[in-house]
Design a protein that fits this description.
396 residues, mainly beta, Methylamine Dehydrogenase, Chain H, globular
Amino acid sequence: MRRRSFVRGLTATTAVTGLGLTAALHGHATATATTATADGRSGRGVRRRAAWREVAVPAGVPAVLLSGVAAAGPDLAWAVGEEARSGSTSGRPVARTWDGSAWHSTDVSHLAFAGSIRNVAAAPAGAAGAVAAWAVAYDRAGADHLLAWDGTTWREHGFPGRGESGTELWAVAVAQDGTVRISGTRDGAARVLRADDAAGTRWSWSPPLPTDGGSVPSLWNVHVDRAGATWVSGDVVVARYDDRSWLVLPRLAGLRLSVTDLLPVAPDDIWLTGHDYGVGGPPGKPPSVVLRHYDGTAWSDVAAPFTVGSLGAIAPDAAGRPAVIAGWDFRDGTSAHYLRWDGTAWTSERGPVAAQGTTPVMSALAPIPGTAGFWSAGTTAQSPFPPAQARIERYG
């Protein structure tokens, strides 16, 4: 799913690291649940057994951040990101592959650029002629890259605007028929790049996303709904492109808002996650959690079980309904803080306790087709500096 680096929006919290985290290690074999409903009500729930577990992943050159994860089934998944990053200085692409029993390093040394693989998406089972998975990559030298999985590694793939400065690829999604949608920037405007066939042999850019005359939005997130329409979001905009025209939803309110992910269940049932720093504040001020719902008319804030930190990604179940949210809880960073949807409310559950001195920040989620499980990927620190390493957790 998602998305831009969660850590990108949290670099202002670097100074927080030295303050220490308030919660003691107490073990999370079970977790006390709290709930939050779409109308903002919250309350205490029952104790339930957490089912998240850490899965070993090969180390990279610190700092390492996994910003995308996708799965084709129980025996094949991909995680992508970057390694050798230092704060705002980009590193180089990094990739990992799951073979059903373990995560392995994927050699991407042939990708001769510095930067990161931003996002990854898998083709659904049964999509005739489809490439198994696609990824988009940031190149700090200028033009971005489209990558296709060849069965062993990631390879460059052509698209209109390839190699041209100012052409940016932000996120990728694959529709049920195997066709690809990419949010990006082309000719000074935000657009959607679409593959007209599942093999990715014919591509076309959409008309420009309508704006109010301000700056061109970076469309960090892209999703395809079950009707085949493409949804995109930036930090203030959410819009739908149905291959004919754009529909722009009401502008998102927030002073320093970062939208990390979007889940369009239906035109009148849309969820988004993120964080907001609000007005000013001292160095190291943590952000507030953002969880919002659109009912077809307006956006409403939904009270999350924790309020200081961020929600990094949201994933659907097999039917496309909201299922899981991954979060970073500022007041207890000993483990990832997940939210689970029970049909009427969001329930809090915790991931496994991390090693002392590390803080799991999970920025990507993906359902595992054919199971009720999920992959969660991210990093071990809230700021992208060494010695941060990749972290992967699994539910189910």
